[in-house]
């Protein structure tokens, strides 16, 4: 029996102990039957066939919760598929305090308050301190946009939520991890990554979708937690400026000469 079926058929209520004491209930599901047999396939097909934006320029609010404390920070975020990213935590005057720029292969992180910069490969151990197992740096745009990478995936099972509109799909990428996708009629509502022991390494919940210039909508709020993270995070898109293409030079960061530069592995 697959990890997904063992997990879903468990009769007890399973709670994940997240940092800060926050629990996450796993969904209850039932077998697909009747008219839902055709609907479960058509919903997934429609989700995959949508044309989607490949870039965003936005203001966001980052929330961080651990050990009973909640902090929020205004920030700016620009991203281009598959993994170009520029993220800046800013002060009340809009000046960046922390600035991360990555082209998907390399990254530079600048701490402007301390005058220190970090540089290395996007798949380095340094980056994986913040990205749990199963979350690859080159898939970041998929996670931000409420989408999933299609190449290499295999759909193992499909079930229906016991209550509510979601269909649940068990996805395997051949990496000994299980991805669970909860789709409503139009959007990805939840995406979980489980290891071989059915531990939820990563749990992303999407809500507040809004229109884009393409078929698929963009999530207005992303809440992430899981055993692979040191804290629970919330990312809210407070203002979107554009979905138009961005200059690649935006994702290249030159550190000031007086910065201490640390190469990380």
Helical content band:
10-25%
- Which residues sit in consecutive blocks of at least 5 with pLDDT less than 50? 1-23
Number of domains: 1
CATH class: Mainly Beta
Let me know the average pLDDT: 86
Task: Name its key features.
two-stranded antiparallel sheet, 15-stranded mixed beta sheet, 265 residues, mainly beta, 11% helix, outer membrane lipoprotein receptor (LolB), chain A
Topology:
Elements: H1 3-8, E1 15-17, E2 23-25, E3 29-30, H2 36-49, E4 55-66, E5 69-80, E6 84-90, E7 96-102, E8 106-111, E9 116-121, H3 125-128, H4 140-145, E10 154-161, E11 167-172, E12 178-183, E13 188-194, E14 200-207, E15 221-225, E16 232-242, E17 260-263
Parallel strand pairs: 9-17
Antiparallel strand pairs: 1-2, 3-10, 4-5, 4-16, 5-6, 6-7, 7-8, 8-9, 10-11, 11-12, 12-13, 13-14, 14-15, 15-16
Précis, in short:
With 265 residues, this protein is mainly beta. The protein contains four helices and 17 strands.
Written description of the protein model:
With 265 residues, the protein is mostly beta strands. It has a single domain (3-263), classed as Clam (outer membrane lipoprotein receptor (LolB), chain A), CATH 2.50.20.10. The chain is 11% helix and 43% strand. The chain has helices spanning 3-8, 36-49, 125-128, 140-145; strands at 15-17, 23-25, 29-30, 55-66, 69-80, 84-90, 96-102, 106-111, 116-121, 154-161, 167-172, 178-183, 188-194, 200-207, 221-225, 232-242, 260-263. The strands form two sheets. A 15-stranded mixed beta sheet has the order 3-10-11-12-13-14-15-16-4-5-6-7-8-9-17. β5 and β6 form a beta hairpin.
């Amino acid at each position: 029996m697959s990890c997904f079926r063992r997990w879903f058929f468990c009769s007890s209520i399973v709670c994940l102990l997240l940092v800060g004491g926050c629990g996450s209930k796993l969904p209850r599901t039932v077998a697909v039957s009747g008219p839902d047999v055709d609907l479960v396939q058509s919903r997934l097909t429609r989700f995959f066939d949508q044309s989607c934006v490949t870039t965003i320029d936005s203001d966001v609010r980052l929330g961080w919760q651990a050990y009973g404390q909640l902090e929020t920070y205004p920030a700016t975020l620009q991203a281009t598929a598959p993994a170009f990213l520029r993220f800046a935590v800013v002060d009340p005057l809009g000046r960046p305090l922390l600035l991360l720029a990555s082209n998907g292969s390399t990254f530079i992180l600048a701490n402007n308050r301390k005058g220190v910069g970090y540089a290395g490969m996007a798949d380095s151990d340094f980056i994986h301190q913040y990205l749990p197992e199963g979350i690859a740096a080159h898939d970041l745009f998929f996670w931000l946009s409420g989408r999933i990478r299609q190449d290499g995936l295999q759909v193992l099972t499909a079930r229906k939520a016991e209550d509510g509109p979601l269909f649940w799909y068990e996805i395997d990428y051949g990496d000994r991890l299980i991805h669970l996708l909860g789709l409503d009629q139009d959007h990805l509502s939840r995406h979980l990554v489980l290891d071989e022991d059915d531990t939820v390494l990563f749990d992303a919940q999407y809500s507040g979708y809004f229109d884009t210039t393409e078929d698929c909508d963009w999530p207005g709020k992303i809440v992430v937690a899981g055993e692979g993270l040191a804290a629970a995070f919330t990312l809210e898109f407070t203002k979107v400026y554009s979905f138009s293409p961005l200059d690649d030079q935006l994702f290249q960061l030159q550190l000031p000469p007086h910065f201490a530069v640390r190469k990380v592995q």
